Amino acid sequence: MAKVLVVTSGKGGVGKTTSTAALGAALAQTGQNVVVVDFDVGLRNLDLVMGAERRVVYDLINVIQGDAKLSQALIRDKRIETLSILPASQTRDKDALTAEGVAKVIGELREKFDWIICDSPAGIERGAQLAMYHADCAVVVANPEVSSVRDSDRIIGMLDSTTEKAKGGGKIDKYLLVTRYDPGRAARGEMLRTDDVLEILSIPLLGIIPESEEVLRASNLGSPVTISSPQSAPARAYSEAARRLEGEKLEVTVPTERTGLFGWLFKGRS
Amino acid sequence: MIMGLLDTLFGRSRSSAPVARDRLQILLAHERAGADGPESELLNTLHSEILAVIKKHIPVDQDKVQIKVDRGTSVSMLEIDIEVPALEKGRER
To answer: Which segments constitute the CobQ/CobB/MinD/ParA nucleotide binding domain (chain A) (predicted)?
Structure first.
């Protein structure tokens, strides 16, 4: 049965779009049919991170307004055939995204895909609420930093109160994804540790993505990090997180970069 | 680099993460009690009833009554802070 997953955070710039792309690609690599949906109307970026920006013809709003069929707006990834993207519109009209329209599109996507991954806009406004409304589960992306953790707490509260499932008396599965983690700084007491964040937010941990140059490289190239450099530390962390989403029980570790002697000698000199 | 060395020499702690954790825990306990939680309803009731009792005897300003709950693991602390105008000398005991 299809699963709707929202990737959300409240705060901007913590890695929602990067994580949507990386998790989506990792799930698709295991043979699942995956669509990643950009809900950031007016500020679409998932297309760019996925390397599909020049292939956008129709978007989510065109489908909602009946100007295009869903199949016309979906872009099939060129690297993984079970991965598709539904881009957001660049319109400045805030009311273009309607609750009924979103419900209809999600309903249609449920028939075609195993995973529908909704990339939420930052904030707690309508866009973010609509992105989470139909979710069966949520990945809350947080940086080990005070403002991000505080905003995650607000978002967790919203997931428990304003989603369709919550309103029907149910609960949606929520997972924490810690990104931009620096194990060295955390060990020296310079950065919140994952167990601090977990204790504060008290939702299960999906994974810890270490801070890495590979993440920027991947977005420069327009490729999810799990495709562009699958052996890198962040890619392995995302792939393991994706396996946990599929129900595998894996111990959470922070993968480290596998560098040669040369790399090791010069590591940390910056 | 030099600052780091000085910090080490003079024993100033570089670990700021525990401060971050403590600040977050206090702040979020407060925010979760929130504007629409059942706890805030209780606090509002307490606020108005306590104020009514005190007003019978001393003139107090509505805004000068603060009621807070600090939720702990085994006990919670109910803190009531009331600012009263300086009492007249003759009435002091």
So the answer is: 5-225
